[in-house]
Design brief:
Blueprint: H1 6-21, H2 26-40, H3 46-52, H4 57-66, H5 68-74, E1 79-80, H6 81-88, H7 92-104, E2 108-112, E3 115-118, H8 120-125, H9 128-154, H10 167-172, H11 178-183, H12 186-195, H13 211-215, E4 226-231, H14 237-245, E5 252-257, H15 259-264, E6 274-277, E7 291-295, H16 303-316, E8 322-328, H17 337-350, H18 357-366, E9 369-378, E10 383-390
Parallel strand pairs: 4-5, 4-7, 5-6, 7-8
Antiparallel strand pairs: 1-3, 2-3, 8-10, 9-10
Helix pairs in contact: 3-9, 4-9, 6-7, 9-12
């Protein structure tokens, strides 16, 4: 008998679960639910699990703050609450309550009475990137979500597009934009930059970037000519990855971000990468680069802000330059939960949005660009490279 295709096997399993669900008693249903949650942990990334478990974020953040996950991960044996209490200078009874909740959602494992050990996800929670992600979700996004229903009820006749008078401002009692607010809070800014290290999707933009084809005819006779500008590139992770993959392609690689971010970058950067303070609303100082790249940045601007920023890029480009926008494309139908969650996070925190294909085409057309290719590299989020060039006058 031929082996069934994975999709057929999955469909058959789901059909069995649905059939069982109508006949099980409460005890057996609870057992099936626990088994399904355990299985889910094997088919989702730590970042996806973090989003799904946002209701447990208070305990996750507390655990990260006191170093609970690091202690569990570093131990080869399960640890008692008494030992953890002594190690972390915390109440064993309090830790027991926290750990029981974390175990109930699969973030740690209970092995006996008041005894716990690390799970796969615990390894990630012990790392700085996911711990910072927990802070970001709890300290900013959860707070804005609390203000979201009232704000939307008060402004239900219009889109959320004003980054100085939106849900974030209602939640935090400020007229500063989220970015300006973070600039005055180095700790929160640090959490955001660390969280950018998270691998939020499978797939790799470098696997679809047509760099080899694009640079064949691009001769670098001038050693100061720029190959790649990462606009809003945070700590430079994508610049480093580009140079790791293409160490011999000539041309400078430049990272641009806000001054407070650039100050945090360890220097010198590897591969001779240059860090430059830059704000999107300023004229682009790097002229005639081959690639102007921006990743998950335009989702933080309303259409009017995106158009102004993209026009600044267009003014710096020559006939050989290419704009590369790295962002997800929301399907018109059947969007996955994570894409919709990301859209709401953008709306609540920075009056931004994730865009559909039609919205991307209209936005770039308004900014004077023509899309030549859309190269999707990750599913189901549909993270894609949108390749565009300025429209000739």
């Amino acid at each position: 008998m031929a082996q069934q295709a994975p999709t057929v096997q999955i469909d058959n399993l789901l059909a069995q679960v649905k059939t069982l669900g109508t006949s099980l008693n409460a005890r057996d249903r609870a057992k099936v639910q626990k088994s399904l949650l355990d299985a889910l942990s094997h088919v989702e990334t730590p970042y996806e699990q973090m989003l799904r478990l946002s209701g447990s974020l208070a305990c996750i953040r507390f655990g990260a703050d006191i170093g609970l996950f690091k202690v569990l991960v570093e131990s080869q044996e399960p640890l008692t609450c008494s030992y953890l209490g002594e190690k972390l200078d915390a109440s064993p009874k309090l830790l027991g309550r926290i750990l029981r909740l974390l175990a109930s959602v699969g973030l740690v494992k209970q092995t006996g009475l008041d005894t716990f050990t690390a799970e796969k996800i615990t390894q990630e929670l012990a790392a700085q990137a996911l711990a910072s992600g927990a802070h970001l979700l709890f300290d900013i996004h959860n707070r804005t979500y609390q203000a979201l229903p009232d704000y939307l009820s008060e402004h239900k006749d219009k889109e959320v597009e004003n980054m100085h008078d939106g849900i974030f401002q209602k939640a935090f009692g400020t007229d500063l934009s989220c970015y300006e607010y973070l600039a005055h809070s180095p700790k929160l800014q640090g959490y955001m930059q660390d969280a950018m290290k998270l691998n939020q999707a499978e797939g790799d933009w470098l696997s679809v970037l047509p760099l080899d084809d694009e640079v064949k005819q691009w001769q670098v006779s001038d050693p100061d000519r720029v190959l790649f500008v990462d606009i809003g590139g945070g700590m430079g992770h994508q610049c480093i990855r580009l140079r790791d993959k293409y160490p011999d392609v000539p041309g400078r690689v430049i990272l641009q971000d806000m001054p407070i971010t650039v100050e945090r970058i360890p220097k010198p950067m590897p591969h001779g990468i240059e860090a430059m303070a830059y704000n999107f609303d300023e004229p682009q100082p790097i002229k005639n680069a081959k690639f102007y790249y921006t990743r998950n940045v335009l989702h933080g601007l309303p259409d009017s802000g995106c158009i102004a920023a993209l026009k600044n890029v267009a003014a710096a480009m020559d006939s050989e330059s290419v704009l590369v926008i790295d962002d997800l494309i929301v399907p018109d139908e059947g969007a996955c939960t994570q894409a919709c969650q990301m859209d709401f996070i953008m709306m609540a925190s920075i009056a931004g949005k994730k865009r559909t294909k039609d919205q991307w085409y209209k936005l770039l057309d308004a900014a004077g660009f023509k899309i030549s290719q859309i190269l999707t590299y990750a599913w189901p989020l549909q993270d894609s490279l949108i390749i565009a060039t300025p429209v000739s006058d």
